[in-house]
């Protein structure tokens, strides 16, 4: 993996063979690396937490495929861009811009961009999750969290994001579960045991969600959860 050892990337970028490649081959290598963008979006940004929480909202409302999956993914993507804007701005100012201007090498740009992403992930990663992977990797002698290699930090970050997303999903489910329970009790007391409770409870869930301006609350909670 490219995160196994940053010196591998540095040697590759500074090698004469790489610098002497034709422009066409460099473009081909760049387009090939675009394949990893989807994986990087999921594992290195806020996308995981956001898309899971929004999926929990849809399931809690019992609305099947409404909102549609493309809408959930699109909203998750743009919320990710919104949350990650300071990090992306730092990458642009410290890595991409200077590299395009020719003031730094490719290896220096890679290091600057990695540092910006590392700072974001360390902020969002629980200490217990980070220590778990540090112990599994046998790297107990780390001087500080900032010196954690990406091959250890990335799985710790994703694990921490999954835990946070499931906690938020649990909190979202609670009021809707109460509505289901109340509707079920009422139907049983009326002797309508054959009537599926979800048929009656879904309109009440939608009404409650609209009255409290649910989407605004969810988006606000997601944005503030990243500090």
TrEMBL record:
It is a multi-pass membrane protein. NCBIfam families: fliP, PRK12797.1. Belongs to the FliP/MopC/SpaP family. It holds the Pfam family FliP. GO terms for biological process: bacterial-type flagellum organization; protein secretion. The keyword Lipoprotein does not apply. Its main location: membrane. The keyword Protein transport applies. It comes from the Bacteria. This is Flagellar biosynthetic protein FliP. Keywords: Bacterial flagellum, Bacterial flagellum biogenesis, Bacterial flagellum protein export, Cell membrane, Cell projection, Cilium, Flagellum, Membrane, Protein transport, Transmembrane, Transmembrane helix, Transport. GO terms for cellular component: bacterial-type flagellum basal body; plasma membrane. The chain crosses the membrane at residues 27-57, 69-91, 165-194. The gene is fliP_1. It is found in: Cell membrane; Bacterial flagellum basal body. Plays a role in the flagellum-specific transport system.
């Amino acid at each position: 993996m490219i995160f196994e050892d940053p010196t591998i990337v540095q040697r590759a970028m500074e090698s004469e063979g790489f610098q002497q490649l034709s422009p066409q081959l460099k473009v081909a290598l760049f387009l090939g690396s675009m394949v990893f963008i989807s994986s990087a979006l999921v594992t290195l940004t806020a996308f995981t937490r956001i898309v899971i929480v929004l999926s929990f909202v849809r399931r809690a409302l019992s609305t099947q495929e409404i909102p549609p999956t493309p809408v959930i993914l699109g909203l998750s993507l743009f919320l990710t861009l919104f949350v990650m804007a300071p990090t992306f701005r730092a990458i642009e100012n410290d890595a991409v811009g200077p590299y395009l201007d020719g003031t730094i090498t490719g290896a220096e740009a890679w290091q600057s961009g990695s540092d910006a992403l590392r700072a974001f992930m360390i902020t969002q990663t629980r200490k217990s999750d980070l220590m778990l992977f540090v112990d599994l990797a046998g790297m107990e002698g780390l001087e500080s969290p900032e010196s954690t290699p990406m091959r250890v930090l990335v799985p710790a970050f994703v694990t921490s994001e999954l835990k946070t997303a499931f906690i938020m999903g649990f909190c979202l489910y609670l009021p809707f579960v109460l509505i289901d329970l109340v509707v079920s009790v009422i139907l049983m007391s009326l002797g309508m045991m054959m009537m599926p409770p979800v048929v009656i409870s879904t309109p009440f869930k939608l009404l409650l969600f609209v009255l409290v301006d649910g989407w605004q609350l969810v988006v606000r909670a997601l944005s503030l959860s990243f500090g």
